[in-house]
Amino acid sequence: MTTPPDAAAAATPDGDRVLLSELLGALSHALDLTEGQPWGHSVRTCLVGMRIGRTLGLDAATRSDLYYSLLMKDAGCSSNAHATAAFFGSDDHEVKRNLKVEDWTDPVRMRLFALKNAARGRGFMARVRQVLHMARADERAGNELIRIRCERGAEICRSLGFPSATIEAVRCLDEQWDGNGAARGLAGPSIPVLARIASLAQTLEVFAAREGWQRALGVARERQGRWFDPELVATLDDWADDPEWWAALYGKNALERLSAEEPEDRVVRIDEDGVDRVAEAFAAVVDAKTPFTAAHSTRVAAIARRLAGHLGLNFDETRDLYRAGLLHDIGKLGVSNLILDKNGPLSPEERDQVERHPVLTLTVVGQVSVFAGIARMSAVHHERLDGTGYPWGYEADQLGLGDRILGVSDIYEALTAHRPYRDGMDPERALGILHDLDGVALDPDVVRAIGELVGAGGIPDPDPRPAG
Ligand SMILES: [Fe+2]
Ligand SMILES: [Fe+2]
User: The whole model's pTM is what?
Assistant: First the structure.
């Protein structure tokens, strides 16, 4: 972002600029969806981790680094979703959710976990085949899934200009005190303290949400010295006497409490370009979910922005379209990769799940106050002028010019993008398909505009065909 979240940014609070905590706190719900965690997991983990940081007496600068480590800890979550679903043959959300409560450093427990989570919900033979597939895979495959996630999360934090302490905390999230963590095998004090806090905080939140806070504190104690730094676990001693704090944590206003937890002399505000950088980072999270639509969100946004300029929209409208393009498929983070990556026709239930993604997009984007004006536009990209779209079946009088531009951009990108299993359609053929729909499902002015832009070389080429 043009103004990195550093001390200089913190020193110039400005009411016109956007609170980074509010933006990331709201968008962190998309990361919760990807991880199969309950709504608000990242926000609550942040509140838990910040209490630990306060008890430790960390200075304001370090607490600021911790705060953003906690909010961004799952930034890499989508990068192993495809591989997780393929490895287990199961819904990636379900596997990830189950793994979060498993003591996966115990080899016996992990073998049982693999058996329980292979091809979940499918027939006996499918499960046997999946177990054999997993047994043939390199024994480090599971660790590699975690490593990919941590590295990707760190990369996203770097792209947003966070300080190295935050980047390293996200990279080392899954290290464990005894050195048995999956990612890099760091141990003890060589694990950055912010990563140690984040690891403990996320486990406390996961168990508290699932089995109650008493059980969460019990798990922390059981795993101290193995998973967790004993000194950090010792800071939890008086938490059992504080049921009100736990009740508030699971109250309705966790997101509202988030801003109050940011160290007050280090509050980070960003400008409009910074907001674009955050939207671009979340587009990258969406695009990493499946290799079948890699770069889709970023290219849809680029196409929509060019179309907006060509059709004479003003600066603010063009920026809105760009952001809506970046975030339009964020709801797909809540759809299993077993469905998104399926090689074959979808069942009616699977189609229902795919067609639900705009609703999730509306829910996530609609939470962000700075995106209040684009939430609906980002969500209606599958609606069509003749009412044949989904999920709401809107008609022409309910779809504005921005909505129509985004719909056309989405289709053109999907037709022309290269996939691991096929080359993208050439532009002329893709335009032919759009022309067949114009005046019926699509706006003829927008279809004509994209034709003119393509003719003038004004639409970015798709990325090269990815490896299958
Ligand atoms: Fe979509
Ligand atoms: Fe899309």
Answer: 0.88
- Based on the residue annotation, tell me whether 73 is a catalytic residue of this protein: no
How many A from CA of 357 to the centre of ligand 1? 7
Q: Which residue has the higher pLDDT, 16 or 455?
A: 455
Identify which ligand lies nearest to the alpha carbon of 293: 2
Domains of the chain in sequence order: 14-78+144-270 (1.10.3210.10), 290-455 (1.10.3210.10)
- Given 73, 96, 289, 332, the catalytic residue: 332
Q: Please give the distance, rounded to the nearest whole angstrom, from the Cα atom of residue 430 to the centre of ligand 1.
A: 18
Question: Does residue 141 register a pLDDT over 70?
Answer: no
Provide the terminal-to-terminal Cα distance of the chain, rounded to the nearest Å.
33
Q: What does each C-alpha distance from 289 to 133, 135, 168, 180, 459 come to in angstroms?
A: 22, 25, 23, 27, 24
The rounded distance, in Å, linking the Cα atoms of 464 and 418 is: 7
Chain-centroid distance, C-alpha 450: 30
Q: Is 419 helix (H, G, I), strand (E, B) or coil?
A: strand
Buried b / exposed e over 207-223, threshold 16 CB at 10 Å, is bbbeeebeebbebbeeb
User: For residue 111, what are its two tokens?
Assistant: 């073998």
Tokens of 48: 């838990």
Buried b (16+ CB within 10 A) or exposed e, 228-260: bbeebbebbeebeeeeeebeebeeeebbebbee
Using the mean position of ligand 1's atoms as its centre, give its distance from the Cα of residue 358 in Å. Answer: 6
Ligand 1 centroid vs 283 CA: distance in angstroms? 12
Mean pLDDT of 395-417: 97
